[in-house]
Specification:
Strand order of the largest sheet: 1-2-3-4
CATH architecture: Roll
Number of strands: 4
CATH superfamily: VirB8 protein
Radius of gyration: 21 Å
Number of helices: 8
CATH class: Alpha Beta
Low-confidence stretches: 14-23, 25-37, 44-83
Shape: globular
Distance between the termini: 43 Å
Strand content: 25-35%
Number of domains: 1
Order of helices and strands: HHHHHHHHEEEE
Length: 215
């Protein structure tokens, strides 16, 4: 009876890790279009909020606080400062960030992901966690029953948004393998919205644009 119960528990555990591995690849494809749409909607809402605030300021004759402080200190207004988000530096930042965020080495993964969390805003972080930081997947990697690796191939800035942020496109191959099974791989295309803030570059939004299985 005890052996049967142990076998049942082991099977459940393996199933959870398998589900985690499938989430790592399958869910990526499932939410690709939705993530891209949500990223666009977030930008529109952000711009609408800015436009509304500017309209209220014009009606009351008030100057936005950030712009007021910038002019008082002899600095560029915040809107112009955001235009200083550099596409080359944004690309370098995303390249570095992905080496931390998609580190799936058992002995460095947790610390790398902790560092990555410090450079991504909450809305974007929740989206990224759903796809790439599933606890069942990470636990399988820690225990050695699941192996995964992300190989980055290209990173490039594609355009600048009206708010001054830069959209950076990253492509690469995600590979995962359950113990005793053949490796599976998928080509990913990721979009990152990057903005330079007072304390450095940050990812303010994220979307999974494409996911293609590799035979």
């Amino acid at each position: 009876m005890t052996q049967a119960a142990d076998n049942n528990n082991n099977n459940k555990k393996k199933m959870l890790m398998l589900v985690g591995a499938l989430v790592l690849v399958g869910l990526v494809a499932l939410v690709a279009d939705g993530g891209k749409k949500e990223m666009a909607e977030d930008r529109v809402q952000h711009q609408q909020a800015q436009n509304m605030q500017q309209g209220q300021n014009m009606q009351t004759g008030q100057m936005p606080q950030g712009q007021m402080q910038g002019q008082m200190q002899g600095q560029m207004p915040q809107a112009q400062m955001q235009q200083g988000t550099d596409p080359v530096e944004s690309t370098k930042f995303v390249h570095w960030w992905l080496t931390e965020a998609l580190d799936y080495s058992g002995n460095t993964m947790d610390q790398a992901h902790k560092r990555a969390r410090g450079f991504i805003k909450e809305i974007a972080r929740r989206k990224f966690e759903t796809l790439f930081w599933q606890e069942s997947t990470l636990q399988g990697i820690r225990e050695g029953s699941l192996a995964s690796n992300f190989a980055l191939t290209t990173v490039k800035a594609t355009h600048r948004n009206p708010d001054g942020s830069i959209v950076v496109e990253a492509e690469g191959a995600l590979v995962y393998q359950m113990t005793g099974a053949a490796p599976q791989s998928v080509k990913l295309t990721l979009d990152f919205q990057v903005l330079k803030e007072d304390d450095g570059y940050r990812i303010i939004d994220f979307a999974q644009r494409a996911s293609t299985p590799i035979n």
